[in-house]
Amino acid sequence: MIQGMEIRHLLLVVAVLLSLVLQGQGGITSSYVRSEWPAVDIPLDHKVFKVPKGYNAPQQVHITQGDYDGKAVIISWVTPDEPGSSTVHYGAVQGEYDFVAKGTYSNYTFYKYKSGYTHHCLVSGLEYNTKYYYKIESGESSREFWFVTPPHVHPDASYKFGIIGDLGQTFNSLSTLEHYMRSGAQAVLFLGDLSYADRYQYNDVGVRWDTWGRFVEPSTAYQPWLWSAGNHEVDYMPYMGEVTPFKNYLERYTTPYLASKSSNPLWYSVRRASAHIIVLSSYSPFVKYTPQWRWLDEEFKRVDREKTPWLIVLMHSPIYNSNEAHFKEGESMRAAFEEWFVEYRVDVVFAGHVHAYERSYRVSNVRYNVSSGDRFPVPDTSAPVYITVGDGGNQEGLAGRFMEPQPDYSAFREASYGHSTLDIKNRTHAIYHWNRNDDGKKVATDEFVLYNQYWGKNIRRRKLKKHYIKSVVVDWIAS
Ligand SMILES: [Fe+2]
């Protein structure tokens, strides 16, 4: 009898220890101190900002997905001196541009700065999985680039996304961009805060939007960057007479929002390969009954995990963040949307804003309702993983002060510059990797297998749990 009690006691201890392991208590705060360049912007005369040769040559070329399912791109560029042509010539063979698409252009002022002519051209009806070459302008000033279309939307389509946030235009930003371009990723999920031009005043704001466009062109001209807006895109500067939010950003960076029935380019969604990507705006109204709230309500219903197993949400201000910088700034969006993230079993939520890296366990705080007494995030296998990748390298520098002790929801955090990749293999598995800019040295980094919330590990985990409970009960009876 005593032996039986001891065994039961032992089993209880084992069960408690196992549950702690399964719940993943005890995160890691990396204390590694990294060398970094000063957080100052690259000088204007540096070669990364070089203006292309030729009169009125197109510059700041960037592409983004142009429709819901990846059969179109929007090609954008700026001509500095005069409107020029908004036409794109393209084809599947280099130098043989059998097809033509006609775009539109516009220009604007910001304080006394006069912008160049921003062109946006929708190129649609493309074949999947195809390399296209394209040419902008003609004669000596023409420029040629290429891009590759994604595979058709399919549950097992593999695809590698890059994730970059808060990039700016410092030498640290350049390091991030160069590292990213060697990653082999096929498209960027950008988490907001592009140029940090709003750190300047008067005409320099527009100038630094232009330099950023040229700075990122070696990547943005060749693969789509899916944009989301951060606080540095707001550009609300009443002392200069500029009070229209997102003016510079919306003139220059476009999104296929109409294709996902959104009424505003700041929130939208696309499907690409096996992923359904929802982009939210932290700096637009999102409480109940606002256009963004109503759109998201409908968009979640349109998600079909049989076609796109991977459900990814992008936003700028993180919901789970244990850094002193921007602590709790995502709380209002958590209150508005977390319940849906859990209900629709979102795989991962990427955010930026905090200039550091942090990953959460799968947790939720949906039982908190002001009076319930349930105030804390708890392990929740239906919840997304929340990942903050606000470490692109802008001029504001790193956010190095984390809240202590590390909260239970925080799995890994480190204040270094870098970017992430999400390498989707099939409907069940994706390899996630955070790449700090000085990877290559023998230091720990953050890499793990992300199991799909609809097709992946949880189904097996439930089975395992059942078997585990069964074996405990069998042992108990046997004792
Ligand atoms: Fe930000």
From TrEMBL:
Cofactor list: Zn(2+); Fe cation
GO cellular component terms listed in the entry, alphabetical order: vacuole
Catalytic reaction(s) noted: a phosphate monoester + H2O = an alcohol + phosphate
Domain Fibronectin type-III: 57-152
Segment forming the signal sequence: 1-26
Superkingdom: Eukaryota
GO BP term (any one): regulation of phosphorus metabolic process
EC number: 3.1.3.2
Gene Ontology molecular function, alphabetical: acid phosphatase activity; metal ion binding
Similarity-based family: Belongs to the metallophosphoesterase superfamily. Purple acid phosphatase family.
PANTHER family listed in its UniProt record: ACID PHOSPHATASE RELATED, BIFUNCTIONAL PURPLE ACID PHOSPHATASE 26
UniProt name for this protein: Purple acid phosphatase
Originating organism: Brassica oleracea var. oleracea
